[in-house]
Design goal:
The complex is a heterodimer of chains A (146) and B (142).
Chain A lengths: L1 H20 L4 H8 L8 H21 L20 H17 L3 H6 L5 H32 L1
Helix pairs in contact in A: 2-4
Chain B lengths: L3 H23 L5 H9 L7 H18 L15 H17 L4 H9 L4 H24 L4
Helix pairs in contact in B: 2-3, 5-6
The chains are: A mainly alpha (146), B mainly alpha (142).
């Protein structure tokens, strides 16, 4: 129960931040990615502002054995930039540029994003559903090549 | 318009504070695609309540705040359906194959100086920029 309550608070604050920062407006996101158009630097401030408290949090986490609610803190992240990371990120970036929505803002703006926002979210969920099969196909292709 | 960067910074600090809270209280990395995707493909089913609560807050709180804005806040999503569907599929598959999106790799990864987070961010920013150049400036579909 406590875990769900704190997750709700975190999700709510995340969503409010996405709304306040302008990241639910696809024009601002595409404006940031459009370096040859009317470039909009807002996203740099959003990312910079978000990284600041997170850096402090990782620092605190590194000196703690457990999270406040008792479970383990995330293990150290891997350092390998592998095939899946590159292919997945390129696919994600291509889609992000096309419409200007990434997973967080797609959910946060669902109540006012209209039918377009809804179709995007459903397509994204469909993509997530097929991702395990896609991942398996990638490793089969890689195995066939070597 | 000229105040946008201040709102960007304030909103960014809120996003980072949410991630800090989720990390220190729940012990989890706040990655939107991971939280949602773990429910969709059932890989994170053992923590479904926590995930569902996060998603509920993410969808509900902005809906409650938005009416208090003096000006209408819009998403300006394109009405080109093939583009919307293709983009949604790419974002869905891509974030799950890469194991993270803007929040997980970008915000939470860069802030712990993770090589994977930084690498992913470089690749999705590059791909996003190229995508806008091709589809806006060459093909004029967005």
């Amino acid at each position: 129960m406590m875990r769900s309550l704190s997750a709700f608070i975190a999700g709510g604050l995340f969503g409010a931040g996405l709304l306040v920062s302008g990241m639910t407006d696809t024009q601002k996101v595409q404006g940031w990615l459009d370096i040859f158009g009317d470039w909009d630097p807002t996203l740099a401030f959003v990312l910079g502002g978000a990284i600041l408290p997170m850096t402090v949090a990782w620092n605190i986490a590194s000196r703690r054995a457990r999270a406040v609610l008792g479970n383990d803190l995330p293990e150290k992240s891997g350092s390998e930039i592998d095939r899946n990371l590159v292919i997945g990120s390129v696919m994600f970036g291509a889609g992000w540029g096309l419409v200007g929505l990434c997973p967080g803002p797609a959910v946060a703006s669902i109540s006012w994003g209209g039918i377009g926002g809804l179709v995007f979210l459903l397509s994204m969920l469909a993509g997530m559903l097929t991702a395990p099969a896609f991942r398996a196909r990638l490793s089969r292709m890689a195995a066939a090549l070597t | 318009m000229e105040m946008d960067w201040i709102w960007g910074l304030i909103g960014g600090l809120m996003i980072g504070s949410a991630g800090a809270f989720y990390l220190l209280v729940n012990g989890r990395v706040m990655g939107a695609s991971g939280i949602i995707g773990g429910l969709v493909d059932r890989s994170g089913w053992s923590t479904w309540a926590e995930r569902a609560a996060f998603i509920a807050g993410l969808a509900l709180i902005p809906a409650l705040i938005r009416p208090f804005y003096g000006v209408p806040v819009l998403t300006h999503v394109t009405n080109n359906w093939p583009v919307i569907i293709a983009a949604g599929l790419l974002v869905g598959i891509g974030t799950r194959v890469a194991n993270g999106c803007t929040s997980g790799h970008g915000v939470c990864g860069i802030s712990r100086f993770s090589l994977r987070g930084i690498g992913a961010t470089v690749f999705y920013l590059l791909a996003g920029g190229i995508s806008v150049i091709i589809f806006r400036h060459f093909l004029s579909v967005i």
